[in-house]
Every structure is written in structure tokens, then in C-alpha cells.
DNA sequence: GCCGGAAATGATATACCATATCATTATCGG
DNA sequence: CCGATAATGATATGGTATATCATTTCCGGC
């Protein structure tokens, strides 16, 4: 079961991060990991009820998500109003500026670090325009190869 | 009055674009231009009532915004759930992939074209990850120089 | 000018996302 | 055990977005 392996991964992450990952936070993280796609806070509340047979109010989910995102165990996709587990939640990989490739068709998301050279060029361009980059997170609307392929056939 | 000059600019834009820019759409565009910052559809409904002494339901505002964004006269900032007039609404400048620098402090926004070399590198990186860039629009959380300066003093 | 279809707008309902606030419970060192 | 702090629950409310059907406006053909 996906949830099972996600749980053990969340366990590992919890041990690595020296932070108070309570059982509910861990469960929310596990649900995010099992989802493998962005989910909303309200969806998580539903998933929690179904997966753990306990009702958790959305308000609490939001707070747990705050915690998880502050600790880079999860991310918020601002352009989607959804959340996703960090691709590096289970490795010690230090967390740089993330970049999300979002398939507009199947909503699969791939997280990667922003390419170093791109990052530097971006910073330069921003500075030139009279701004300072503070919280770089790129969310790029794409098609995954599968969906791009499928699209071509029906064109 | 800002609205007045925005109206004439909207007029120009309307003439340039060979599209059916109705008077209400033009008014919404004028309001966006006068705002000079991102505004929500519901804010626009309020502004419309105040500015033109006529009540327009949010639903209609959304539709007019759809039209304006489809024709690159306005843009939606997906990460803010707000709308902004296109910086090139009044020039014949063909519209490439836009990039928005958003001041997290004062919410000023600057629109610029994505730097060509950055765009190419982005496309390469995306392709390498098994995706195809479809609708490139960068929304970068920044501080404008004024706010960055102000921030330093109070640190 | 009248007519009929298409486009635009209005009206209403509803779903979904997010936060504010106060109450309650869990946790932990002393 | 106590008191402080952190975490969670409960409730209310606000903000954003869409679905659907009704009405009006616009425009070309007659
Ligand atoms: Zn991450
Ligand atoms: Zn896909
Ligand atoms: Zn533009
Ligand atoms: Zn600023």
C-alpha cells in the first residue's frame, strides 16, 4: 500500500529533521506522499478521515501544512492552491530554490532545483528591473511527455 | 484623474486590437489601468460601481477578465488570485512570455518579457525533466528597491 | 425595419480556499 | 502535581471561482 511506504518515509524524514513531527503532522505528510499529486487542504481533511478513521478539521490541516512547509517537508503550489510533499523529504539534501513543473492535463508535478545558471540570470534580470528576489519558487505550466504525446494524436 | 487617462489609453488599445472591446470591457480595462496594482475580480466589481455608477455582478467581471486576458490586454497573477492590466496594452508590441516581479511588501508589480536566454535555458531544463513548456509565465516574489531599502533600516 | 441566431451580460446558487478567534487538550520541565 | 507552552479542536466568516439559466444586445440577411 502506498500509504504504508509513505508512512515509513515520513518516519525517516521525521528522524532526520530534528523537529517535533507529531503523529498527526506525520500522517498528513504521509498522505501527501501517498497522493503523488497536489492536493488541497480540504482534500487532505477528507483523505485523513478515510485513511486514519479520524476526523480532523480543515483548520488543523492548514496548521499542519504550515508546519510542514516551513520545514521544507512539503510545499505550497501558489498557482494551484494545493500542497505537495517535498521530493527531498526523505533525503538529507539541503533545500534550495525549488521549481515545479506542473502538467496542465494530468496535474502530475515534478519538483527540481532551479538550475544554478538560470537562477543567477534571473537574479540579474530582477535586479536590473529594480527588484530583489526574495522567495524564488518557479511554477511552470507544462505538459508531461505522456500528455503531450496523447494530445498530438487527437489533434 | 487617473481613470480619465486610463480610459483614453484603453480607447487606443481598443482601436489597435481588432476585437470587440465593448464599453464595459473597456471600462474594466480602464479600471485595471488606473489601479496600477493587482486587483481581484470582486474589487473590480466595487471599483466599477464607484467609478461608473453602475453595478456589475462579479460573474460578469470574471467574463470580461477572461476576454481581456485572452487578448493579452490584462493578465491573471495566478499566485495572487488577482488581475493586472498588461504593460503593453497600449503599444503594438507583440506579446511574448511575460514575467512578473511582485513586491511582497507594497504589492507593486512590474511586467517584463522573460529574458530570451533565460527562456531558452528554462525550456531546455523542462524538456530534460520530461515536460514541455506550454504557457510560460513567471511570477517572482520580490521586494522592490524602495521596500528593500525601508526594510534594511528597521532591521 | 423585422427576424433569428450569436454574443454578451445579468441573476442566482453553490463550491472551494483561507483566515480569525477562542476553547480545549497534550506535552514537558521543575 | 503544577504551570507554561505548543498543538489541536470548534466555530464563524470572508474571499475566490464556477455552473447554470435567463435576459439583453448586437448584427447580418431578408
Ligand atoms: Zn522540496
Ligand atoms: Zn500529464
Ligand atoms: Zn502583458
Ligand atoms: Zn515594494
- Just name the CATH architecture of the largest domain in chain A: Orthogonal Bundle
Bound molecules: zinc ion
Strand tally of chain A, please?
A: 6
- Which protein chains are joined by the largest interface, and how many residues does each one contribute? A-B, 33 and 33 residues
The largest beta-sheet of chain A arranges its strands as 4-3-6
Low-confidence stretches of chain A: none
What's the order of the H and E elements of chain A? Answer: HHHHEEEEHEEH
Largest sheet data of chain A:
3 strands, mixed
Shape of chain A: globular
Give the domain tally of chain A: 2
Assigned CATH superfamily of the largest domain in chain A: Winged helix-like DNA-binding domain superfamily/Winged helix DNA-binding domain
CATH class of the largest domain in chain A: Mainly Alpha
Structural class of chain A: alpha+beta
The average pLDDT of chain A is 90
Multimer state: homodimer
Radius of gyration of chain A: 17 Å
The end-to-end distance of chain A, rounded to whole angstroms, is 37 Å
Count of DSSP helices of chain A? 6
Helix content of chain A: 40-55%
Helix and strand topology:
The structure is a homodimer.
Chain A: H1 2-16, H2 23-35, H3 41-52, H4 58-70, E1 74-77, E2 82-85, E3 98-103, E4 109-113, H5 116-128, E5 131-133, E6 138-144, H6 145-154
Parallel strand pairs in A: 3-6
Antiparallel strand pairs in A: 1-2, 3-4
Helix pairs in contact in A: 1-2, 2-3, 2-4, 3-4
One zinc ion binds next to loops of chain B.
Chain A binds a DNA duplex (30 and 30 nucleotides) through helix 4.
Amino acid at each position: 500500500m502506498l500509504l504504508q511506504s509513505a508512512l515509513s518515509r515520513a518516519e525517516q524524514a521525521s528522524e532526520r529533521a530534528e523537529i517535533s513531527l507529531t503523529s498527526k503532522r506525520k500522517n498528513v505528510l504521509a498522505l501527501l506522499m501517498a497522493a503523488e499529486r497536489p492536493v488541497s487542504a480540504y482534500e487532505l481533511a477528507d483523505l485523513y478521515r478515510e485513511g486514519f478513521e479520524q476526523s480532523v478539521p480543515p483548520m488543523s490541516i492548514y496548521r499542519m501544512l504550515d508546519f510542514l512547509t516551513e520545514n521544507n517537508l512539503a510545499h505550497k503550489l501558489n498557482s494551484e492552491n494545493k500542497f505537495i510533499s517535498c521530493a527531498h523529504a526523505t533525503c538529507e539534501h539541503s533545500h534550495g530554490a525549488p521549481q515545479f513543473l506542473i502538467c496542465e492535463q494530468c496535474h502530475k508535478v515534478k519538483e527540481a532545483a532551479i538550475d544554478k545558471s538560470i537562477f543567477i540570470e534571473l537574479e540579474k534580470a530582477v535586479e536590473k528591473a529594480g527588484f530583489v528576489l526574495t522567495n524564488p519558487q518557479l511554477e511552470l505550466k507544462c505538459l508531461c511527455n505522456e500528455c503531450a504525446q496523447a494530445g498530438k494524436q487527437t489533434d
